[in-house]
Amino acid sequence: MPQPPYRHAPPILPKSFSPAELAEIAEGIFRENRWERAIQALEGVSRAQAKDLLQEGAKAYGFWLLPDEALEALVSQLCRDSERPSVGLEQWAGAAYGQPGCSWASEQTPRTRAPMTHAATFATSRFGVALEPSGVEVSRFRKAIETFSWPILCARLGGLACAVWTAILFLSMSRGALTLASRCLPRRGRSFWFTFLDCHKDLHIAAGQAMVFYSALHILGHSIGTIPGILQSDVNELNQLLGCAQGTSGPNLFYWDLHVLHWPPCPLPASAKPKTFTDALFMTMPGLTGVLLLVLLVLVALTSRQKFRSERFETFWRLHNLVILFWPILLFLHGSQGWSGIGAPLALLVCGLPVLVYLLSRLVRLLRCCLPSPSLVRAVIRGETEEGSLVQLEVARPRCWSWRNTGMYAFICMPEYAPLQWHPFTITSGEDDHTVNFLISGIGDWTQELCRRCCTGRLPRLILDGPFTAPTQTALEKRVLVAVGAGVGVTPFISLLSTLLAELTSGRSHRLVEAHFYWMTRDPTEFIFASRLLRTWLRHEILQAKIFIHLHCTAKEVLQNLPAFLFREAVKRQSQVDRHHFKLHLARWLDSSEVQTPGPQFPWAWAEGGHEDLLWVRCPSFECKGITFKSFTGAGGTSSNDPELLVEPPELLPVVLGRPNFRRDVAAIGKARPDMNVHVYVCGNDGLVHDLQSVCESCARESLARKRTPLQKYVLHYERFG
């Protein structure tokens, strides 16, 4: 069917559009006028009513009590008053020029004082043993190869590999031994060995997967070679091949008489020789123990899947404990016959020491259960219900608690509820703190029960096992570091920040040049649990010259909620005003002869050219109205707060609404310190780890392209959860 002709001549379009033209067309197409309609509907509202609306909308994003200074600028957006920058930005300008409440319209001269070497340098540079089969073994048992054919080699290789991987399985879970080993590491290459020790969970999982493969190889080799050879050979011929039948005269490295465990007897009598495949499996010690080992392996493989562990952790843990007990015993019995080998069970020689080390660590945990447990000094709970609540625990430091590094973790047991369950949590207190603190999220049965028992006012009995090594321990040795925490994943970095604040304020020598802490959360009330550290940071200018804190609220946009919509749009429009004034002032600040410390109010995202929306808030406090916090003190518990920290600081802190642009920020940090390596520490989900890994790889490629000597490295360290 022919198309109807145009009534009018079609417009003549240019062959190509400029970016400005495309932006203008896109603005006309995608522009929505919900804000204009809302302003028209609310025309005539008073400033007090507008303030109440915005305060109610802020609660939807987790900001329960915004300061009046922050609300005034947002109210001006809603009431269409004269636009002016936010008070937080004016505070930064006033600090930079030495005049609080600096006027943006007038030209000010930067205050004169001794420049800080670090800040000046920062600002000007910133913005301008494989195992192989032995030949001796092959030649020694040449007759065995002739009788059982080549599959005996596969069976022997699989058996040796299973013994080695069993040793790795037990050693990778001996956390006490790994922590002790971390303290003995040489200073050179310390980060590499820490990374190797920290990936013990990944190594444990990989060892279990390798065990399945080599067990299948071991079973296959015996099924198609050894068992058919036994069934087809004469008894006298078999006795010439069996190592146990040779006694002390056999070709063994040493001889251990285990004849009490031999089944059938050795030398093999004609009446005990297996007649069928089933007899070889169920009527001999190697066959029966091999079947039992296979059953245990299958059960562990099925119950170790992530879905099963999350849904039935109790079943997974109980079965794991049974396997820990029976696996080495069955493995020893499996090789106790000495039919082939070196004269003693191979599992004893390869796995004996790792199993003993692991059993020793379990014995230490058992002793801690029997000894008097440390008292729970204080518990602070945020939330009305147990589900989704946050619990901060302050536990008296146990005796013989050797804790010399930050960011470590410990296992916690609540014996009155689940005596066999031990859950790992990162320690949030610093080295100089008198208590061991934890921040726990109520996302499971055990954590919710902990919250429930704390809410009763009778604090539960807790047992600690630890502390154990973690990757954040090496952060204190770095000169330039970036720490990224998502939600409660910030816990190791709270400990790191606490230690850094204590060391820098005490005047101790420190290698740190620059540290950036990124805290992302969907609920800004979580910032309250670091209020003591934030207030300490705000009190000392020397801390602000080396430590920079970036707070990010990643809450999703609330739909079909008028106050929330008005609040979010007002923040967006006020950020446009603030960005304009900040860019004008930033150039003057950088051109000044004496560059000052950026200060806590400094909007880093805008300084790097970003267009994120910012909201300035007061330093969070547990006394904040509108948020439910319950505090319970145990026997002997007292408040450890410094009276000076109870005074609310006047500075407003910028909170970015949205995720950080790590590609931009990490690259800028590296360019500001071209002669130093950048170490990125992250504790979060796999998606966040992968994003930062790609960022570090991209920055490393750019560093390689610059061809500077020495080559700048971007190293990623992340917490592993297995």
For the CA atoms, what is the radius of gyration? 33 Å
What's the total count of β strands? Answer: 14
Count of alpha/pi helices: 26
- Main sheet overview: 7 strands, mixed
- Poorly predicted segments: 5-13, 100-125, 127-140
Helical amount among residues, as a percent range? 40-55%
Distance between the ends: 65 Å
SS-derived structural category: alpha/beta
Could you tell me the strand content as a percent range?
Answer: 5-15%
* Assembly level: single chain
Please describe what this structure looks like.
The chain has 722 residues and is α/β, with parallel strands linked by helices. Helix content is 48%, strand content 12%. The chain contains 26 helices and 14 strands. A 7-stranded mixed sheet has the order 10-12-9-8-7-13-14, with helices on both faces. It has a 4-stranded antiparallel sheet with strand order 5-2-1-11, covered by helices on one side. Helix 20 links the parallel strand 7 and strand 8. Helix 3 packs across helix 4 and helix 9 packs antiparallel against helix 12. The chain is elongated, with a radius of gyration of 33 Å. About 7% of the residues have low confidence. Keywords: Membrane, Oxidoreductase, Transmembrane, Transmembrane helix. This is FAD-binding FR-type domain-containing protein. It is a multi-pass membrane protein.
